[in-house]
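To illustrate the input format used throughout this study, we show a single complete record. The first block contains the structure-token representation of the backbone; no residue identities are included at this stage. The design step must infer an amino acid for every position from geometry alone.
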């Protein structure tokens, strides 16, 4: 087996492994292996192949990886709220009187029935439109809309 075979096989295996590991770290090493494999096709020795591998791997860490991370937005907040965080700012209806004295009450938001409480300790009657201000466990903290 010639040197370029090893470099190209390593590059292919690294590109395949990149599919299972986030962050584009292995892709940068695969780029270095690929270019070292191309250089190995020339009649030069192993030391120059290793230097080519090292230089192109570092260059891809500096140049290619930031572009890919930015393009695919890895590790960045996309602004998409999920689970109970998605309820913040939504409006709903009081379905059972919210009484600050007993800390009992029910609110329907997006068709789901939740325990409700007011942030300002005021009583709210059924049918009152409210807005979700925060989520405290399974209780929605609400304020009267308007």
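Output of the design step:
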């Amino acid at each position: 087996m010639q040197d370029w075979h090893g470099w190209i096989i390593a590059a292919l295996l690294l590109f395949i492994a990149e599919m299972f590991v986030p962050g584009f770290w292995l892709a940068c090493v695969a780029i270095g292996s690929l270019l070292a494999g191309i250089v190995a096709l020339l009649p030069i020795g192993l030391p120059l192949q290793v230097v080519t591998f090292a230089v192109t791997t570092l260059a891809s860490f500096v140049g290619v990886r930031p572009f890919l991370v930015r393009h695919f937005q890895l590790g960045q907040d996309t602004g998409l709220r999920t689970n109970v965080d998605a309820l913040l700012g939504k409006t709903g209806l009081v379905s059972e009187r919210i009484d600050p004295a007993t800390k009992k009450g029910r609110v329907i938001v997006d068709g789901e029935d939740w325990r409700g409480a007011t942030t300002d300790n005021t009583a709210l009657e059924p049918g009152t439109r409210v807005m979700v201000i925060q989520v405290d466990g399974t209780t929605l903290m609400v304020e009267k809309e308007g």
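Structural context for interpreting the output: The chain has three helices and five strands. The CA atoms of residues 76 and 138 lie 28 Å apart.
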